[in-house]
Amino acid sequence: MSACNTCSLNKETAGCGNSKGCLTGGCNRLNVFDWLSDMSLPADQKYDVVEIRFKSGRKEFYRNKEKLPLTTGDAVVVDVPNGHHIGYVSLQGELVRLQMKKKSIEDDENIRQIYRVASERDLEKYEQAASKETSILYRSREIIQKLELKMKLTDIEFQADNTKATFYYSAEERVDFRQLIKDLASEFKIRVEMKQISLRQEAGRIGGIGSCGRELCCSTWLTDFKSVSTSAARYQNLSLNPSKLSGQCGRLKCCLNYELDTYLEELKDIPKLKGNLKTKHGEANLQKTDIFRKIMWFGFDGENTWHPITIERVNEIIKLNEAGEIPETLQVDKDLSKLVEAQALTNDLERLDEKYKKKKKKKRKNRGNAPQSNQPQNRPENKPENKPDNKKPRNRERKFGNRKNRDGK
Question: Which residue from 97, 109, 90, 3 is spatially nearest to 47, judged by alpha carbons?
Answer without folding.
Answer: 97
